[in-house]
Amino acid sequence: MTSARDSGSARLRVIAVGSSAGGIEALSQLLATASVGRDECFVVAQHLSPTDTSVLPELLARVTSLQVSAAVDGMPLASGVVYVTPPGVDVLVDAGVLRVAEADDLGRPQPSIDRLFTSVGVSCGVDSVAILLSGTGDDGAAGVESVHSAGGVVAAQDPATATFAGMPGAAVATGTPDLVLPPGEILAALARIVDSASTRPSDTSKSALALDDSTLEQVIAVLRDVTGVDFSGYKRSTLLRQIERRQRLINLSTDEYLERVAVDAIEANALGRNVLVSVTAFFRDADVWVAVGEQMRAMAADLAVSDDLRIWVPGCASGEEAFTIAMLAAEAVHPRSTDHPLRIKVFATDLDERALAIARRGRYSDAAVSTVPEHLRTRWMQRVDGEWEVTPALREALVIARHNVAYDPPFPRISVISLRNTMIYFQNHLQERVLDLCQFALAPGGLLVLGLSERIPRVDNLFSVVDPAHRLYRRGHSARIQHLPSGRYVPPVFVHPPPTLTPGREPTSVLFRRLLATVAPPSLVLDDSDTVIEVVGDVSPWCAVSIGQHTGHVADLIRDRYQVTVRTMLSQLRHSTPESVTRVIAEAGAGRVEITAARLRGKGSGSVLSFRPLPEASSADIDVEVVTRHPPVDDDTVLSQELHATQDALQSTIEDLSSSNEELQALNEELQASSEELQATSEEAQASNEELEATNEELTTLNTELQLRGNELIRVNVDLQNIQSSITSGLVIVDREMRVTRFTPLSVRLFSLINEDLGRPLPAVPTTIPVPDLRADLEATIRSRAVNMRELTSDDRDLLVQTQPYVDAEDEVRGAIVVVTDVGDVAAERRGREAALANLNQVAESVREFVWQRTLTGELTMATSRVEELYGLDHAAVLEDPDLLLAAVHPDDRYRVQTAMASADRRWQIEYRIVRPDGSVRWIAESAQFVPGNGAEPGHVVGSSLDITDRRDLRELADRRSAVLDAVLRTEDTGVLVLDADDRVLSANAGISALTGYTSSFLIGTPMTVLVEPDPAGHAEHDDRDTNVPRRIVTADGVSRPVTVEVQTVSVTGDDSADAPRRIALVRDISRMREITTELANRQQYDLQTGLLTRAYLRSKTEELMASGVTSVALLWIDLDGFKEVNDRFGHRAGDLVLATIATRLHQAARRHDIVGRLGGDEFAVLVTRSQDLHGLDSLALRVLAAIREPIPLQDSLAYVSASVGIAVHPQDAATADGLLHNADTAMYVAKDRGRDRHAYFAQEMNAAADERAAMRQRLGAALSRNDFEMHYQPVVDLVDGRTVMVEALVRWRRDGEVVSAADFIEYAAETGQMRALGRIVLQLVDADITAMHAALGDRQPSVAVNLSVTELDERDITDWLLAWEPAGGLGKIVAEVTESVLLGPDSRALDTLGLLRRLGATISIDDFGTGYSNLELLDRLEPGIIKVDRSLLRRAQEDQRGVNILDAAVQLAHALDAKVVLEGVEDEEMLAIAGEKHADLAQGYHIARPMPLAEIIDWIAQRP
After folding, report:
1. Cis peptide before 632 (omega within 30 of 0)
2. Which part of the chain is the CheB-type methylesterase domain (predicted)?
3. Pair 859, 766 in one domain
4. Strand pairing category for 387-390 and 363-364
5. Would you say the pTM of this structure is higher than 0.70?
């Protein structure tokens, strides 16, 4: 069983199954087909009564080979297990763990299938599977949409096979199921889909993902023709991914699928629906809707009483989001009452008609509305038939329609557009197009809402940002050209944006206008209808805006005194040939002006009216019109001027009337032409009548011809009947609906047909032999012209049934022809051959070898099933692909095997290795022989293969044992004698020669009794038992040496010769062993390093004293304080000297009759044999403490240590030696906790604390083995811009459901030597977290500070790991954080390791600066990049000026070392202000943020600017 949390395991696929009434039978059929060994598990939610006891696990366990278990909260998911939901609760899946939750109060069935499916979709994503089986209601319909949206697979039971079709029918109605099958077929189809996805070839060129653009355009064209939707602007990755998904679902190759889409409209529609991903829910991303609600309330406050709040929701899918925004709008516009019609109008549009049908229905399940706030659900929804229905008032405010946001015209005057998660599937140009249309549709100040994963691609005054976090934008004014939709995307005409101007320069358009105003007179530019379209210069002296409505005509702007003249000039320009007309008008006291009307050159028509003031002129000026306003002016002159103007105006009027007359005359001519056309139409109608009479005559002739053709068809039919009766096969002809249209008599061999069966579907006709899949064969033939052949066998006949298409003259399939042929003779002959072949196979299968036969081309024509046992390969697969046998040959032997097989005589015998699929290696002996052909059949090669692994192993074992025996005989430490049945020497090794001085050849034939003295214990030499007892052997020089002789019997079967080996004698010299034994006895009593008694001997002495009845015994347990620092600073050699010195001082401090021993490490003990009173023990303890406290001279320095002493007294404190030692140890820890350098007497209450320490050590060790730790991260921010520069990694212990801070267990880890293991775990966790942080934040990933102790930096394996570390983002993102104690040991490897890390790119940080013992010279050499000033200095700075000065000095010192300063422990705003005042660079503390898990710190950083 594979847990979902096992590292390195395959991804676990979670299959959620939901069922209700009738579901147990369907569940049984489903799980009966489940197989063990797949990386999948099942979570079952079966509707049950909450008060009943469920026996569903027991029922399912009977029908499935999987393990069946009841779901338990917190249970990790594992493969091969079926989890059954208990009654009365809901079950959810969360990150590979089951969560059992209380059922909600929405009144829906329990357990909720929707909740289960939704949780699986969210947690497992593309690995999720939802299966919905028989049941009533619609529970699960919303859940399958969640799984489908997550990219999972959805399957539903075929409603036709369900006992109750409500639930699977509701799922099918959503359009999301990928599979709709009977329960027994679902898992097989699902395995096909999953396996095809997991075994996707590495060669992506064969995948749909590698389609070229031209092929993809063809698919897009097909989709556009079938669905009416143009997907050319959709992202290529989205289209290819959905094509591949559909390809996997229907199990076709890429080429086959493309052909299928081109001809199958149903599949094209399915692909189109998949591309139109529908992701929607009520109040999805609730924070966004809170922000939208605030904006709409502001809009409602400014809304006029007569206006509606108009909202557009493109891509509304099934309507949840549209109703969400409708509720918020209704609440904003009608906060209290809804008696009158709602003043909102919501346009909900989408391309998926199935989704729109759900939206129009306006009913949703309990799971779907669970996210709707209670007050909105109460006001705008109501319960109907177990569902939630939108109230009629709100429903009537929605217009739900099919609309393409990219290509259809937009809705006008919109206040809010919710375009969430729609543009994410569009390419950039289509996104810009849609945004242009939204800007066109929105009213000024309108609001645009985008999804959290979307944003405005570029800023061009289209929209301004309202709320960047929630993607809210407001309509702006853009200089870009608006392109309204056409049927297909057309790239917009590129308009060059205005160039960027250097300071002091104006845009080109402004320069042109200024140039015109400078070089041209004030003018009006007019179109062909004399409407003003442009004003050049100041025309106010001649133009004015009057009161009332204006049309833009020039007559509405010209002052009264110039109107007649201007009208006349424009009329002359329009009806005459001159390019311009000029008039001069003078007014007494107002000067003169020259007015010019000129045609505009170029395309189109229009004119320009210019005004040029003239200087005062004499009365002799000609062609001047004077408008008299004030005397004195001559009356004749005035009359003359007025007459001249009137004549011009009259001429202009005459020309206008002439033009109108011409237009009326043209209209009259058109009316006359229309009258003539009507007369022609009447004549054509009369002609048509005559043509109809002629056509009637032609039809009569055609009828006669048809009668003749009918007679011919009768004759052809008779001929066809004769042909049918003459052939030996039966024929049945069916139409496209598989109805029988014709059959021959011989077809009754199979089909029981009579004439009354004509028109009856052929699959419904009884048959003499069952015909499997007849309907499927006929459908395939009619649909795809497939020719199918099927052989049928019964007890008395054999028939061959063939279906082929019935094609008409236009090559269209009109039905199918079923041919029934009797093949009894052929079948009998084939069965005889098959029986003979079966006998041959049975013989071949009975032998141990794998027997095979190959053609000369290498094709296998026969292979026994023994191949599965020998090679571990599937028999059918080997027959299909013989190269599998060669591929199984070990790579080192493959060339040798290929050479043998390629020999000229086609004969070989060879031994080689194979590698089985399970990785095991076996030896094969193969022999082959060529069999020449006999003329009718070609030659072939036969051969056999045998597994000889065991035989080779026995041979290798014998060789190895022989080699071992030779090695034993060559040894010189032990003498070996090989003896015959009379104990005479057959052979002797060099060890005997070295021991006795005799050569091996000299000893052959010598009785062993001559060499070895008789057994002093009386053992007989011929005894078969071991005689490993001391004896003496006589050497060549006559000296006897102590030895042991061990005699072993040699079992030799089948060899009764006298010189056969019967025994082996092993002779060992034990003189050296006796010396070593004596030395070991001394070592057992005394510690070699200090000369004190060992712990074991001290314990035994304690037991002797207690057993002797002495009642005044006390034990002083002495533990050195500071000894570890001596080792770290001066080295282990200095530590050994300190231990020896302490041992000498303890001897001096103890009394003559006391016993001093070493317990181990830096722990000692004094056994006091005469402790009459506590005063004497106090004196002894004080002497010991004083002696230890004295400085210890080393080679170049002095070492200082102290001690903590625990005292336990017998018999008050303990009755045994172990108890006395334990209690003294406990008292020692109490003395250490009280401040060290002191002693403490044991008290009974100390045991509780000792037990707690022991329990903590045990639990901490178990946690280390289980890796029950996680990392939290506290941010360090820049005091200038607030950026998160660094995070500090802090370890946390997950203990019994709570998170324990390091302060609660790190001391125990240090005391028990578990820091090394904990440090390695921390580094591994940090490495994994840095990878996740880099993937989530990218360039915004901060540096990570890792705390390292001197002990860790001194450990070679940890330092090697650090130096080989390649974290995500590089070592430049790592900060190695150490305390000042690292500087105390200049000879430590820690400084070298830190220096190497710094050179590799890591930053060195000094932690708790200001509280340790700093070596400034070493600190400068270390070159730290960061110095963290201890929090105590910051707190001290809050108390008085002295503390401020100290903090200031620490900061300046850190800056002097070119290091950035971090002030840690910032807990309030005052501390933060002090940090800023003292020019610290960075700050850290609870006031900024507490330590948080990985996911939270990523979100925290991502949300900050």
Report:
1. yes
2. 13-197
3. no
4. antiparallel
5. no
